[in-house]
Amino acid sequence: MRTSTLKKLTAATAVLLASTATPALAQEVESSGITISGNAAVTSDYRFRGLSFSDGDIAIQGGIDVAHESGFYIGTWGSSIEDSPTFGHTELDLYAGWSGDVTDGLTLDVGLLYYFYPNGEGGVAGPSDYFEPYASVSTTLGPVELTTGIAYAWSQSSLGNSDNVYIYTGVSGGIPDTPITLNANIGINEGSLGNPAGVVGVDDYVDWSLSADWALTENLTATVAYTDTDAPSINNFTDSAFVFTLGVAF
């Protein structure tokens, strides 16, 4: 149930794209009201909030969610990343939260996400792992779905003892009588995550993406996305890119 706000929201294009899709085939334990679902994807570039975490290379991703009919859920999602001493070669996200209708036509999603890098050695500021609470609201306006949200990481040693906030908005709508859905997302990042190890060079930047999802089967989706930022251009990191993703939900 990881949202596009997040990763890898999301927005994150590929994430915010393949890993956040609601699985078409879910296993439900009827006696307890629990639904277990999963997802897997291969993407040409793992982009998170406009930044490449795979150095422009292919990434393998996947996750699993356990949700209760009350709206509470827990889950995990992982991706291969560009190998480095600080972060290693794997990102693993652990999260828990609640999602449900708070009024007619308005859905709230709130939770806490933990970014974990099991192979990383950390940096001079300490460990690379950090926590990030998130919240989003979504509604339907005519033929499109509108989502807006915020993710806030408080000051932590892995963030250079500084905080970070990410605010985003996305719209999504299907083309009638076709298996194609069009999406547009824009986000504003301000704080320590905009300047990891001084690479980006700025603390605040804007990222945006346009994408199209094509439902090949009931649970197989192909996505093409264009993503860009207004951060200083760095090849295979902040520069614009077309991202191709093939994801399956089960």
Automatic annotation (TrEMBL):
Organism: Parasphingorhabdus marina DSM 22363
InterPro entries per the UniProt record, alphabetical: CHP02001 (IPR010239)
Name of the featured protein: Outer membrane protein
Domain of life: Bacteria
Lineage: Bacteria, Pseudomonadati, Pseudomonadota, Alphaproteobacteria, Sphingomonadales
SUPFAM superfamilies in the cross-refs: Porins
Signal peptide: 1-26
Keywords, ordered alphabetically: Signal
